[in-house]
Specification:
The protein has six helices and five strands, in the order E-H-H-E-H-H-E-H-H-E-E. The chain has 135 residues and is of the alpha/beta class. The protein has one domain: Rossmann fold (3-Layer(aba) Sandwich).
Length: 135
């Protein structure tokens, strides 16, 4: 049983791609905004590796203040999922099974561990079980 079972709404995980679209006003920003702003924060998770990716990308594009603000917004809209030894082992299995790199495997493992649907536009996840692909 996951910590999110029994919730009225499904649990979602917006990956780095979605958050970066949202914060930079990318072509899919409105689709991600509808999900991010339209669900209770208790029904959205953010794997810790996603904070790294989003902070790094936003800081590189928009500067330190924007990156810090992005992380604060993410924390308002979602529950962080930290990496532990169980998650790392699950990620390794997922990496081997699907040919994913470490970051993508950690994100997918976080979703599986929490019973969350992964919402992404990252082509590496397209067609996988438990993924809602945004185009």
């Amino acid at each position: 049983m996951t910590a999110f079972e029994g919730r009225e709404f499904p649990v979602f995980c917006i990956d780095s791609y979605g958050w970066i679209e949202y914060f930079t006003g990318g072509r899919l920003a409105e689709k991600y905004a509808a999900l991010i702003e339209g669900m209770p924060s208790s029904n959205c998770i953010v794997p810790s590796i996603v904070f790294f990716e989003v902070y790094k990308r936003i800081k590189g594009r928009l500067g330190s203040d924007a990156a810090t603000q992005a992380v604060c917004v993410m924390l308002l809209h979602a529950q962080p999922v930290n990496v532990d030894e169980g998650l790392v082992l699950l990620a390794a299995d997922i990496s081997l099974e699907h040919g994913l790199g470490m970051t993508d495997a950690l994100i997918k493992a976080s979703c599986e561990q929490c019973g969350a649907v992964l919402v992404t536009s990252d082509k590496h996840f397209k067609g996988m079980k438990g993924v809602k692909f945004v185009e």
